[in-house]
Here is the input.
Amino acid sequence: MCAAPAANSATVTAALVGDVLEVALAGRWRITEARPHWADVLAGRTPRWVKVTVDQVEKWDSSLLLFLFEVRQWTRMTGAYLDTEALPAKLQALLAQLSRSHETSVPFDRSENFITAVGHATMEVWKKGSDISHFVGECTYSALKLAKLPHKFRWKDCVHEMQQCGAMALPIVSLISFLVGLTLAYTGALVLRQYGGDIYVADLVGLSMVREMGALMTGIVLAGRTGAAFAAHLGNMKANEEIDALETLGISPVDFLVAPRLLALGVMMPLLSLYANCLGIAGGMTVAAMVLEISPTAFWVEMLTIVDLSDILSGLIKAATFGAIVGLAGCLRGLQAERSAAGVGRAATSAVVTAILFIIVADAIYAVIFDILGI
Amino acid sequence: MSTVPSTHAIEVEAVTCGYGGNVVLRDVSFTVPPGEIFFIIGGSGCGKSTLLRHLIGIHLPTAGEVRFFGAPFNHADAATRRGLLKTFGVLYQSAALWSSLTLRENVALPLEEYTDLRQREIEEIATLKLAQVGLTGFEDYYPAEISGGMKKRAGLARALALDPAIVFLDEPSAGLDPITSRKLDDLVLEIREMFGTTLVVVSHELASIFSIADRVIMLDKSQKGIIAEGKPRELAERSRDPRVTEFLYRGDRPGGAA
Here is the structure.
């Protein structure tokens, strides 16, 4: 079995003596090296008796075992007799074990019928829904509790998270918002130019950014950046039993971990959204000045004719909601993560998908509500 | 069936291990003959696992040489290194099973990588290896679906997939109950008995050391090297180094009765 080098490779010589095929194995049988196959040894012969000897074998491992197993399977199939008496006891025991494991190994059936699959899927959806409501309820309760006992709140963690999800996100939010403003201005100019309404690009960019795109783009960026980070961090803490350690100390993971993150996002999201609005408008202004020859002052004055405080407020309300959604999705998926590396990865993915889905749904709901209210 | 090679299975010559500028072990030398169950023991933080990681090539020693059956391993070219990697299997402390693969697929992967066997044959071998460690019926389970002891056994089956001449086991008993731990020890003995495999075990589990180790080396954190080498019983009874006797007496004679 040892791997020290040997010169001879695995060989088989077979001679038919009457009804008996005498098979003599020789050389070094290593699983990582080539070996003869039984079909080649047989060469079309159909003996009634096969006798195997291994006296000339220098070294062997599972390779020899596989060959003998091949012979055994053939003899069983054809009804021939396999004479293994000349084999060492160790080899006979292993061959018997291989035969047993071959027979007892039944593939694990993971399939389920259609009705069961639908039932499981329904129950899963129900469970996910109830988990979300339970978590939102728990967070609300925690917020009320911490409002009464502010000294229990983890202010230090909250400030750290604000820095992580707010200040550290400025470069990516700047770039994306500026480019969104720029794209909006170019797209608007395509149509408006045809009617000589170049100046209305300012209205288009201003209103779109303030009411819609500023909050939406910031929400999506933070879902990918912060939501995934929350889920991965909390998922890793769960895998390391840190969450269990908190619970056994009687500390609520929601109070300790979720509340500071939610507050941090709730504060930073509207601020980031305001910042995104400014950068988006700057992008639009750049296109207007360079392509449409509209001065920044004219752009600004025209924009103020349509954008008022209610538009900015509606954008900020959306931003705060999106912040809560990103925080809740990230923390919920993190706390639900399976205790494995793959589980943490799935939690991060799921957090991003959940956050983006709910951001779009919430945005649509707000569009309807604001329309009804005439905002 | 196998003849004893003229060289040692493992030769460690003046190996210095460390991370960055920090030296954990200095000038460590020892040899392991084929077919021996060799334990690397010592207290927590003495560098047992560090030494193992340097032996199996995860980290390069800052000085010295590791040889398997006389062939230098550390600075071998890619082809030689790949050849030598086939001569040993490793059971990691956490079993390190690939979570996205079933147990059968975990054991089959080394066979797919290093052999030209047909898929059916690979599956036969993987099933046999799992049967040898007592995991018949669990072939299609994922690592997340089995217990810690079963993971360790599956990890051992994977380490044995290529019938290596040497198997390294890093803390095989860590986190296991005494009965499961004892079963794993029996399995180690059975593997040696059946295949003549050389087994290098990193452990501080005294029950295992006294029941299955042929020879041990003991590492010490302050000395950054080997402070004792020999058969565990002899070391426990004859060593004059209080660090050795204190370590070995604690578990062998509960209550401290000599």
